[in-house]
Design a protein that fits this description.
alpha/beta; nine-stranded mixed beta sheet; globular
């Protein structure tokens, strides 16, 4: 049986491989769900089974973007608590979030996934940790929405067991028991996790944060993840208030606390990591613990500027994250390429903090590293999965920028002409192929209004 091939030609290419190989004018050949060839000039003659040829003149082809931190449910609570720091923001929003149900989360997940896909994301993740009593199968709702959109996906099955009565922030009825959280997480892994090379759905163990989970949930969660062979994810070192909380409650900073519970290692990645000292960064580098850098959310919540240049210099794996859309209302990852570069240049390294190619690497190969999938995605190389994006750079927005990678990162958000996931088109000419965007817009608006009414009654 002849394999189906897609040939993309006449484009600039940034492979983001180990040598940052680039082609001013080149080709990519996709065979089935794999990249078969990448190189300069026209594609080889005589290829069999070619079902599509794309003249990509005026485009840059890159690996698909990889999002390493998100909270889909927040899509229906955008634009609230806009002048709060993290702890005040959480206190304001937890009572609303605690009222979510399956229809609300389905709409929120569809909206979140649609915005990411339109903006060049080919691998998404969701850290979902709000499971109110009697809420239904929320994990299943999220996974089905990702499957319908066509994106590769990791569900970080979150949990909380430290409520207000225990000194935490979430309402008492919005948390699980230790035993319930562990059992539900294991059940989600058993039902949905796929460990294969071309897996479309994977599951990680993801207790929410030091101030919303017990020490025992962290410890037993790490044991569960390693017994099941899946990754671990949580929030870490996001704000100075979190650092103070850890010192007061545990007698140590967040990194030392995480290490004491088994939460440092090459199978772990943490969101934010804004307030890290030299010894924290050294511990992450030594253990190969990954970081999901969320520059827009960190700025929105006034959390601070993460030391990304120092982390990269030390060898810490770093990817980019949107974070939830209640703290990054755009819901897009391609804007984080630019924001990561610009915000880090406000730090002590100034203009040497990050360049355009480092920013692109964070959003592609770096994200693949953080999700444990660098052997399969994150760069354009023969044998890797065919997750790639064609960015249109010949319009007014970018026409006078000679270097295409600079245009993509420094310039306005570039339109996506074509996005492939697993060799299949997901976006064509800026429009989703598998989801009715207008219908999603209506449902997210309606569910946001319903949630607001319900929350107001309580």
């Amino acid at each position: 049986m002849t394999v189906r091939r897609i040939v993309i030609e006449n484009c600039s290419i940034a492979t983001v491989d180990a040598h940052d190989t680039e082609y001013a004018s080149g080709h990519v050949v996709v065979a089935g769900n794999r990249i078969e060839a990448v190189g300069a000039g026209a594609a080889p003659e005589g290829l069999e089974g070619v079902v599509r040829r794309v003249d990509a003149s005026g485009h840059l082809v890159t690996p698909g973007l990889v999002n390493t931190h998100h909270h889909f449910y927040q899509w229906i609570t955008r634009g609230l608590a806009t002048d709060h720091n993290l702890f005040d923001w959480l206190v304001a929003l937890y009572p609303i979030w605690a009222r979510i149900d399956e229809p609300m989360l389905r709409a929120a997940a569809q909206g979140s996934l649609a915005m990411m896909a339109r903006g060049g994301v080919t691998t998404a993740m969701d850290h979902h940790y709000v499971y109110p009593r009697g809420c239904g199968d929320l994990s299943g709702v999220i996974i089905r929405a990702a499957r319908e959109t066509g994106l590769r996906f990791t569900l970080a099955r979150g949990s909380m067991d430290r409520s207000e009565k225990d000194g935490g922030l979430p309402p008492d009825f919005a948390v699980e028991t230790l035993e319930g959280a562990l059992a539900a997480t294991e059940g989600t892994i058993d039902e949905h996790h796929d460990a294969s090379f071309d897996a479309m759905t994977q599951v990680a163990v993801a207790p929410c944060s030091p101030f919303s989970v017990s020490t025992e949930l962290l410890r037993q969660g790490a044991e569960l993840a390693r017994r099941k062979g899946v990754r671990l994810h949580t929030h870490g070192s996001e704000t100075v208030e979190e650092e103070k909380f850890c010192h007061e409650l545990f007698g140590m900073g967040p990194t030392d606390y995480f290490e004491s519970t088994g939460w440092l290692g090459e199978d772990v990645w943490m969101a934010h990591c804004v307030h890290m000292n030299d010894s924290d960064i050294a511990a992450f580098a030594r253990t190969r613990t990954g970081v999901a850098h969320c520059p827009s959310s960190n700025a929105r919540l006034a959390a601070g500027i993460a030391r990304i240049p120092d982390m990269l210099a030390a060898g810490v794996p770093v990817g980019l994250g949107i974070d939830g859309t209640a703290s990054n209302e755009s819901g897009e990852l391609h804007t984080e390429l630019r924001n990561a570069l610009l915000i880090n240049r406000l730090g002590p390294h100034r203009e040497a903090a990050l360049n355009a190619r480092q920013a692109l690497r964070l959003g592609t190969y770096g994200g693949a590293q953080v999700l444990g999938r660098a052997a399969q995605i994150g760069s354009l190389e023969p044998g890797k999965l065919a997750d790639l994006v064609l960015w249109k750079l010949d319009t007014l927005a970018h026409a006078s920028i000679a270097d295409p990678v600079t245009a993509l990162v420094f310039g306005a958000a570039a339109p996506v002409t074509l996005s492939l996931v697993n060799g299949e088109p997901v976006v064509e000419n800026g429009r989703l192929l598998h989801v009715d965007e207008d219908a999603v817009a209506r449902s997210t608006r309606e569910e946001a209004q319903r949630l607001a009414r319900i929350a107001a009654q309580h």
